[in-house]
């Protein structure tokens, strides 16, 4: 066994090592696998700074097109022209995750609405469920325009497409729309059915996450996942079914937006009176004053969507909402609390 190892060592210290002998195609193939499975941006970016050859091949169109969502999970404080350029390279390579993420950042954070919408639409046309859902939220609120730019029917249609692709928030939103007759003909029983289905899908998602994280544990002991940067470790919706499991990790771009508007460059707008969606895992800001729905009971919190409102109600707001704090004025139809049953119209 010793001889081959010695031989190997000798070869790798030679001027022309094994790596040099590998064909570019093979290196690109390996890098594509790496970029699609990287668990953080640095895991991929570090490869690019290793040597000139890896830098050249790492920026190959095929490698960039395969980059997974976690390659784009950057922090708001790390946003720079350099990062923007990297995103653009990935967009040009046809990467849908890059299209969606940069679309959201441009639309909400950089206020380049047209370009942001066009990038999200590019991803949506290729059936990117998150892009479809985000476009739906924009249509429901008339974001980037005036109140008259709201297109509820378009929002419902986009939600329907995203929910067919298994997007749980879109399914929940669609359920609430049907229950309330919002942008679609009211159908309470179908709405309730979709809300129950959304919760069943969420349960399946969490069970998969928990069992893959810790195969030896059962659900009864499964507060094993934590919602990153959030104290709430138990999924409030599933707790209604008697399960004590963690909620899924929030999408990177949603954290990016929350950081951008709470502690980053977007803080100025929040100080100026625009508000963030109160659901901790959303991060969407208002694009004009009084754009979001407000809790009609306390008037203190605002939401970009019915889905966010329902989740936040069960997650924390039902503990905080106080009817005595009524402000009087009601915008956008308002919001409300009360009730605990899943699939119920407890948050209107
Ligand atoms: Zn929201
Ligand atoms: Zn409230």
Features:
348 residues, mainly alpha, two-stranded antiparallel ribbon, disordered C terminus, binds zinc ion
List strands and helices in order, with pairings.
Elements (H helix, E strand, L loop, with lengths): L1 H12 L4 H4 L2 H14 L3 H8 L3 H7 L2 H6 L14 H12 L3 H14 L3 H13 L3 H13 L10 H13 L3 H13 L7 H26 L22 H4 L12 H11 L4 H5 L21 E2 L7 E2 L2 H15 L28
Antiparallel strand pairs: 1-2
The structure holds zinc ion (2 copies).
Provide structural commentary.
The chain is mostly helical. Among the domains are: 24-126, no CATH class; 252-325, no CATH class. The chain is built from 17 helices and 2 strands. A two-stranded antiparallel sheet has the order 1-2. The termini are far apart. Keywords: Metal-binding, Zinc, Zinc-finger. One of its GO terms (molecular function) is zinc ion binding. Residues 325-348 are annotated as: Disordered. Residues 279-321 form the MYND-type domain.
Strand and helix order:
HHHHHHHHHHHHHHHHEEH
Q: Residue-averaged pLDDT, rounded?
A: 79
Task: Specify the structural class.
Answer: mainly alpha
Question: What Rg, in angstroms, do the CA atoms define?
Answer: 23 Å
Helical element count? 17
Name the strands of the widest sheet in spatial order.
1-2
- β-strand percent reads under 5%
The tally of beta strands, per DSSP, is 2
Intertermini distance: 71 Å
Helical residue percent band: 40-55%
* Low-pLDDT runs: 1-12, 215-234, 242-247, 325-348
Shape: globular
Bound molecules: zinc ion
Q: What is the makeup of the main sheet?
A: 2 strands, antiparallel
């Amino acid at each position: 066994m010793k001889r081959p190892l010695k031989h190997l060592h000798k070869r790798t210290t030679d001027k022309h090592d094994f790596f040099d002998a590998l064909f570019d195609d093979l290196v690109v193939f390996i890098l594509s696998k790496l970029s699609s499975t990287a668990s953080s941006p640095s895991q991929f970016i570090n490869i690019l700074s290793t040597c000139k050859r890896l830098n050249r091949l790492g920026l190959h169109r095929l490698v960039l097109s395969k980059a997974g969502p976690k390659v784009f999970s950057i922090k708001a404080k790390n946003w720079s022209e350099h990062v923007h350029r990297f995103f653009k390279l990935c967009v040009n390579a046809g990467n849908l995750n890059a299209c969606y993420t940069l679309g959201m950042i441009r639309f909400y954070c950089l206020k380049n609405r047209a370009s942001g919408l066009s990038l999200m639409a590019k991803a949506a046309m290729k059936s990117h469920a998150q892009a479809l859902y985000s476009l739906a939220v924009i249509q429901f609120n008339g974001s980037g325009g005036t109140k008259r730019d709201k297109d509820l029917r378009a929002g419902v249609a986009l939600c329907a497409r995203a929910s067919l692709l298994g997007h749980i928030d879109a399914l929940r939103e669609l359920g609430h729309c049907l229950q309330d007759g919002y942008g679609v003909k009211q159908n309470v029983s179908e709405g309730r059915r979709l809300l129950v289905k959304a919760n069943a899908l969420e349960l399946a998602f969490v069970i998969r996450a928990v069992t893959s994280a810790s195969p030896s544990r059962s659900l009864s002991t499964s507060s094993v996942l934590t919602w990153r940067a959030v104290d709430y470790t138990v999924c409030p919706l599933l707790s209604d079914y008697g399960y004590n499991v963690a909620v899924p990790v929030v999408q990177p771009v949603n954290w990016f937006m929350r950081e951008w508007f709470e502690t980053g460059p977007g803080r100025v707008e929040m100080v100026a009176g625009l508000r963030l969606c109160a659901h901790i895992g959303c991060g969407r800001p208002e694009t004009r004053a009084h754009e979001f729905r407000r809790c009609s009971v306390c008037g203190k919190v605002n939401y970009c969507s019915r889905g966010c409102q329902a989740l936040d109600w069960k997650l924390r707001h039902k503990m905080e909402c106080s009817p005595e704090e009524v402000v009087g004025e009601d915008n956008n139809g308002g919001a409300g609390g009360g009730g605990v049953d899943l699939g119920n119209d407890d948050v209107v």
